Model the fold of this input.
Amino acid sequence: MNDSVMRRPFGKSHGCRFGEHIDLNDLASSDIELLNAAQLIRKHRPGAYIFAQGDEPQGIYCVASGYVLLGRIGAFGDKIAFGVVGPGEIMGYRSYFAGDRHAATARALTECRVCLIPGRAMNRLLDRNTTLGHQFLATLARDPGPPDGLLLRAHHVPARVRLVTLLLILRDRFVVTGAEDSVEFDLPIGRRDIAALLAMRPETVSRTIKELEDDGIAIFSDRHVVVPYLGRLYDIAGLDRLN
Done:
């Protein structure tokens, strides 16, 4: 359920962050005025749906604050989660540009603010500003889509490897504190959502977490995770540490 709808000056850090994906210098003042008039920033409570699988696309969404879980209903009615979208990231643009119904559902994980640039405004901008269209083509070309999610759900990959890989992905994307090798961070999702992302049963996730704790690899306190030695996560995942 939405708490409220508000409008903010376009590109301000406390409002819509859509301007992080385009060069505002390429927009005429009339274009920015159009965005200011069109943008809608909605507050969503945890568990609220921003859009649902099968909905007609309304435009392009940008997360101003908080976290959103992307998922879909599989062919056999199973719920499949494949990504977490955080502040400054955009979503829904694949369906918008393709002119297709949403292939996924976006649900608020935390209290969040999401900006919508309605399709009518986007169409007007793209019609009169070809540079903006080229910028979006570049964004689409750089976006790898959900292959990480597909890898994490691969049943031939051991549960420990899938969970550790997810921890590394989340660790790279969210706030991290700690020493050079000992890090701690808060997960934006609960264990049921982790199970959905990894295509595991919740009890398998709990058992794998206990194994990691017993081996001193990671300590979990609700959503707070402490990793005594980050290198062990990379070793288990079979990844090279780049930083």
